[in-house]
Design a protein that fits this description.
The chain is globular. It is mainly α and about 230 residues long. The protein has a two-stranded antiparallel sheet with strand order 1-2. The protein contains eleven helices and two strands. Bound molecules: zinc ion. Zinc ion (ZN) binds next to helix 3 and helix 5.
Length: about 230
Amino acid sequence: MFAIDHAATALLIKRRYPSVSMVPLLVSVQAMELAWVALNYFGIERTTTEATVRSVADIHLVYMPYSHSVAIPIGVAAFVWLILEKGFGKVALGRAVALGIVSHLILDLATHGHDIALWPGWSGPKLGLGLYETAPLAAFVVEFVYGILCWYIYRGGTGLLALISLGNLANLSFFSPAIPGPEEYLAGRPTLLVTMIFVQIVVTLVLVGVLSADRQPNQVGRRLFARARSTR
Ligand SMILES: [Zn+2]
């Protein structure tokens, strides 16, 4: 899943755990990707591309057993939950952050090609529904609808809706070989790709964080408002 929709997941978790601040939520939903960026820079994980890149199907996340395996994010989420809830008594924070970490895994499994191992050293078939490889335009629709759904459930303002819409549309060329776009320049330049994704992560997290402050009145607010009027 692309950066904007991972970031939008923080809105869903915020709706469920309103007392938790947005910052740890935003970091948690992208913790796996931030680990992937760092491990690619250090040469521990590896990304390759075809000789020409026309869509996301030409980018191969060939080796990422630490940042994107099933076992590690679940293990890290369980560890963080244990420390925060059982160690520090921060029940909502522990659950929200653990949920954020695992959300990334679930969303990537739903969209990625077959590139997610069960655990480091796993030699069996890798997981991923394969949308990026077989039906990238379907992946685009799924991601767009998911992002809007996060906004709707959160009851965000128009700025947030515009951000999620534009953030998805900006990626359109990555989902179709027929639409030219900046992905062409990524051929043979995996470090540039990693940097581009890192910038996208930071920009989308900051903007979702800033724009999430503006919310439409929720149902509770509306009900209170109606009661205040009827007793007047
Ligand atoms: Zn990911």
